[in-house]
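**Tokenised fold:**
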Amino acid sequence: MNKAETVLPYKDSDKGKKKQVAEMFDNIAHKYDFLNHFLSLNIDKIWRKKSIKFLSRENTKNILDVATGTGDFAIQIYKRLKPEKIIGIDISKGMLKVGEEKVKKKQLSEIITFEEGDSENLQFPDNHFDAVTVAFGVRNFENLKKGISEMFRVLKPNGELIVLEFSRPEKFPIKQLYNFYFKNILPTIGRIFSKDTSAYTYLPASVNAFLYGDKFIQKMKDAGFKNTKEKKLTFGISSIYYGKK
């Protein structure tokens, strides 16, 4: 078990990480989109757009969006690639409810659908999807190795995986500014707006524990992915990871 898998949102709870993460996102679902965009100064939207550019336009008709949350990534994928079907899965019913309302307003309910689902036990057959995507979700996996292996399993041969996740800047002064913001400002603002005292303390802790960069690429290779690569974004605050089956 790596360090990221032992970081929990609620330290006084006896529930496992998976159940705690689901509970946390249920608690903040009503403010999640607002806080995401506000706390990142809307840069998260740019990161998602850059991630989607890694996916092939050809033969990307059936896409699985893992840890879809409120469906932001799924909606942006549809806007750019116009696939026939996107299925978004998440363990948080609260987040999925918000996502369903969003796609309904955009009249995309027939193309983008949501299911409650566990990223480490995907309820789909082998070799099923043209692409699998996950934005800001892999660090929440209870078992990272199993989660990556499951995404590999459900991909068709030559299918593509895109992972967008926070990493950590390593150069002065961005590293110092980033650490101060993440440890002090972000949790305070998050607590005020979300009313959850733990959620935005968990965020920096989970990012700090995550196996980013070459270590995450190695996890992808171990699962069988080829043509793997990483693209750092905004001084290394986040990274795009790409691989093919």
